[in-house]
Predict the 3D structure of the following.
Amino acid sequence: MIISFEQSPESFYKLALAALDRGELRQALVYCENAVNGKGNAEYRLTLADIYLRMGRQYEAMDVALSVICSGNEGKSAAYELMARATGGAGKLYESVYYITKKARLDGDEDALDAMDEMMEEMASGFDAPPTSGGNGLFLVGKEPEKDHAETLDRALGLVRVREYDKALDLLSEVKPSSEYYPEAMDIALRCYVRKGDADAAYRLAKETVERDPQDAFALYVLVGVCKEKEYLPLLEKVDGDASKLYYAVAAADAAKDYALGRALAAKLLAKAPYAPEAYFVAAGVHYNAGERAAGEAVLKDLFSFYREYPASVILKGLKGRKRYDVMYNGMMPEIIVTVLRTYVRKHAGTADIFLQSMLTDADFRKCVALLFRLDDDEVIGNAVAFLGELRHKEMDRFFDALLLRASLSPMTKREILAERLLAKHKGKLTVVPSALPMTVSCRKPEHYAEYPAVLQEAYVDALSFGVCVMDVRLAKPLVRYAEACYRSFPLLGRVKGVELTVALFCLSMPEPDIPMPEGMTAYMTSQIFGLSKKEIARVARLMDLIRALETGEDE
């Protein structure tokens, strides 16, 4: 018997609530997405955010709740509560407290406000004597009573990001076996050896790690998958625990071509993480590599049935004829899937006009672009942002403005979008979410902006966008001051490079421009983000001194 129902947003929403009552999260998600697509009011969107949260998809819950917060007052209290839960689940403690406080203020809950004040005092006092349990993200201030290896690990990770593996290993050698940070330090060291290609050192450290912990899945992956030591294969069968351990165990079994073991471990992974896309991609990969294409497609179709942000037909068609599916990957999707998405976008985005036409008419194309933006795909982001500069279209503007609100999008990507939007707009405001807290940016330019040389216009906009999206600071007023000083005496600056001027203006406008950063982070900021060499960094320092003199009138 076929049961038909009215396919209106209201009907889909009622079905979503009924599925939620039965605990059927997948079905509730599909129904609620249909309701939101038909009529995206606050109530429907907040229910969708709640479903995402129940599935452990915190960043998607943030994306939806933030869209409610930024679009008016309807449902704001409930959106604040959802944001507090989502940010807390994602480990963003300060953001969680912020949203609890915002909800308490809106609801007039004085008791909650008092409790938040006490919590903030406790958190602030924690900087004087930081706890020694985890917390690698703390920025320590003041004199430390003893060596704190949390900062050592932070610095080492900064060096790993810029591929300074030997320097990172020197730092990690300071962490002794008696330290509670030793296992984490050795994990970072092991990754350094693997990335350096030092198989002997990786083997020795992985073996030592497995002797200490026979279920250390990453060390087992190194032994089995990298060093080809199949004698450790039996240990993989006993790996259990969180999804990340099982993920490495599956990758190790797949690398050893033990597909029966890989399938068994993948089944455990799916049971442990039934709503995580990564688990499905890994499980599908094992089937593909075993020559079981139909089984691999079945796993992916299962994922696409409740995770409809993926362009299912594009991915399934693109995988046909591919020989090897790499289940070991970083990020949201295996490289083979990323390649399929990128190829599809290339075919349908040769020019700005074609890009616009594809965005307006091809739902799969929009999904590909959105996913590649979340992956920080340089090629697609670069082209799309360049096309944004050429196109003045209301739907395109809405698409890019919505990306600025997504908590799951990289701050560097938001910086590029915001800069292009600011270059195009001269009135109004843009709302940006640097990490999980909304910030309003005025599009109003400095008094003489229209007369600025092009290099100064772009440097002003780039510095403002970088400060807002990447450093989460409000620097518009001092930035205007220094930009105006450059305008008044621009010939004195000589033939200055745009990136050097951007960095100089940004650093000058920072509230505390002389805060020291760990060596690895300094290298990352200057060389990786801005692409500056040591000579260019020295020129930036001289340029900053000159701009300071221009701003104070000392050049006269």
